[in-house]
Amino acid sequence: MSELSGQIGQIALTVSDVDTALSFYRDILGLPFLFQPSPQLAFLQAGATRLMLSTPQGAGVVGANSVVYFSVADIGATYEAIVAKGATPERAPQLAAKMPDHELWLGFVRDPDANLVGLMEEKR
Fold it and tell me: Which domains does the chain have, with CATH numbers?
């Protein structure tokens, strides 16, 4: 038996309409589109992790998912650009924690199904 590598391979997000969610994650957040095998399922790339968008298929509730956090280089500019493209603002970026060697900044927007999407920057 092998151990987990600690690397996340895929995150599934339950949405009400895959095409609407795909437009948000691809066109507003700018994630690269991978493939869409059916109208109820689509995949995008988020760094080393694949993001699966799916309508409820026996599991999951629309808008009641865990928070997906995306690492960004300039949280202020990224947040403003995403909101300008149509994301629903939830909380503007702010300092969340001071670490010994950096500051952790977090900001939040909502996708079309009101799923919370986090933006994070570790400022050194």
Answer: 10-56+63-123 (3.10.180.10)
Q: Which among 69, 91, 96 is positioned nearest to 79, based on CA atoms?
A: 91
pTM of the model: 0.86
Q: Which are the contacts of 86, defined by CB distance < 8 A and separation ≥ 6?
A: 24, 28
pLDDT along the chain (124 residues), means of 10: 72 95 98 96 95 86 87 95 96 95 94 93 93
Specify the length of the chain in residues. 124
| pLDDT at residue 2, as a whole number | 53
Q: Which residues pair with 91 in a beta bridge?
A: 108
Closest CA to 23 of 37, 9, 44: 44
- What is the largest distance, in Å, between two alpha-carbon atoms of the chain? 48
